Amino acid sequence: MKEFLTLNPAHMTSAITLHARPSPTFAAKLLEAETVLAQSATQLAPLTQASSLGAEDVVITHLINRLGLYIPVFVLDTGMLHAETLALLAQTKAQSKVPVTVYEPVHTAVVEFVKREGNEPMYKSVELRKACCHIRKVLPLERALLGQRAWVTGLRREQSTARGEVPLVDTSEARAKVNPLANWTWGDVWHYIQLHQVPYNPLHDQFFPSIGCAPCTRAISLGEDFRSGRWWWESSDLKECGLHSTPHASDSSQVAASAQAHFAEGDVKGSPETVRN
């Protein structure tokens, strides 16, 4: 069993106080994100937002609801999420205007895997950790994306080296990936949360910038990068679970070409689509 960093609550301060520092171009980045989401809602439908309920994702869900866009949200409940994450999930479902759907792994597959590899296979090898991610996250993701032309994520270029070239709209795969916060800084994210009083995971107040499954997430120290708290016992800096590194099959081979046409030459025009009840 790996040890987790314990923090003294008396020394804690809110993530908003620590991080809410808008960049000089925040207003332009906000308009960019709003326009990309609006255009995606009208030109790439059906599409959905993948939310881990992290800081970036709660901002995007708030933007979707505030703009009145019909972009349903889904969350992957791996069966190993923190209690704080589950509480935020319940709050999000209760407050969101658009549907919030929860996808879980196939129970029998999890039971068989745990019976074969134990309760903490992720610490034994990278292969077993990825196998756990595959059962608990990647396979449920495939079900969540079935029939979707595009999906919206909270990827930002600042998050890690592996994400340094994240585009606003990625049409490199058959199913387009919309990353409205690609150009945002961590300070921009928290400025928006402060500005609109968006509910967020209290683990962020305990120095968890990236929050995944409980056994695979820890707080970070000053100077560490955003993803260092994920699978921290692994040496590679390419720390991904497969959600953003494995191509997912599309129901139509024309999706990529269609998405590319809509977003060619930086065209980000479009008006918000009203939420359908």
Please explain how this structure is put together.
The protein is α/β, with parallel strands linked by helices. It has one domain (13-262): 3-Layer(aba) Sandwich (Rossmann fold), CATH 3.40.50.620. Helices cover 35% and strands 8% of the residues. It has eight helices and six strands. The chain has helices at residues 15-19, 26-43, 55-67, 83-95, 107-117, 126-144, 186-196, 255-262, and strands spanning 47-51, 73-76, 100-103, 150-152, 169-170, 176-178. A six-stranded mixed sheet has the order 3-2-1-4-6-5. Helix 3 packs across helix 7 and helix 5 runs antiparallel to helix 6. Mean pLDDT is 83; it is low at 1-10, 238-242 and 246-277.
Q: What is the strand tally?
A: 6
SSE arrangement, N to C: HHEHEHEHHEEEHH
How many structural domains in the coordinates? 1
Biggest β-sheet description: 6 strands, mixed
Architecture (CATH level 2) name: 3-Layer(aba) Sandwich
- The radius of gyration over CA amounts to 18 Å
CATH homologous superfamily title: HUPs
Beta percentage is: 5-15%
Order of neighbouring strands in the sheet with most strands: 3-2-1-4-6-5
Condensed summary:
The protein has 277 residues and is α/β, with parallel strands linked by helices.
